[in-house]
Model the fold of this input.
Amino acid sequence: QSVLTQPPSVSAAPGQRVTISCSGSSSNIGNNFVSWYQQLPGTAPKLLIYENNKRPSGIRDRFSGSKSGTSATLGITGLQTGDEADYYCATKDSSLSGVWVFGGGTKVTVL
Amino acid sequence: QLQLQESGPGLVKPSETLSLTCTVSGGSISSSNYYWGWIRQSPGKGLEWIGTIYYTGSTFYNPSLKSRLTISIDTSKNQFSLNLNSVTAADTAIYYCARDGYHDYWGQGTLVTVSS
Done:
């Protein structure tokens, strides 16, 4: 069981918008920044969002992040077939002294 | 461009020690403000944070692995390493090294299988 809870899967048609939720607690999401990662099949994870809503250089603005209380959300607009991947949220857990915790991952399927 | 590359045996026997090294190129591992970490992914499963190290040698470990885990750093070689002892089949995974902080740079990962 992951410390952070994500839905196992979400799906939508090309061009549509999907959102992925990440639920935690006051010891992790509630008091720390959230990051999001995209993992394409057979590859290493790639940073999509850091500090809740910031995009690294080269990440399209189709990807967005937000945080409210003990939950965070990743949004993907203009869904493309190349967006089919697993997406993970992550943050630090203050109750575990510097330990990072990940969500269980969400598989995005483009219909 | 910063690059990370994992290296080490792909097969380890049960009860033995899993040892991996991450070589960093394109930047100094001694740069301040960054920790360097290990993350693993069991086959078909999600990501599990293993631990992290600063260039000074300061470490943070996943409590579930702490009793078996040692992460070390060699600034002269721009490398950091992972040692996990008393391994079992449950330690079979793809092991990634990454620049900690936001995990913005990752190695390609290396599959380690624990089997006799």
In short: The interface with chain B takes residues 2, 35, 37, 43-47, 50-51, 56, 88, 90, 96-105 of chain A (CB under 8 Å). Chain A has a mean pLDDT of 95. The CA atoms of residues 72 and 110 of chain A lie 22 Å apart. Strands of chain A lie at 9-12, 18-23, 34-39, 46-49, 63-68, 71-76, 85-93, 99-102, 106-110.
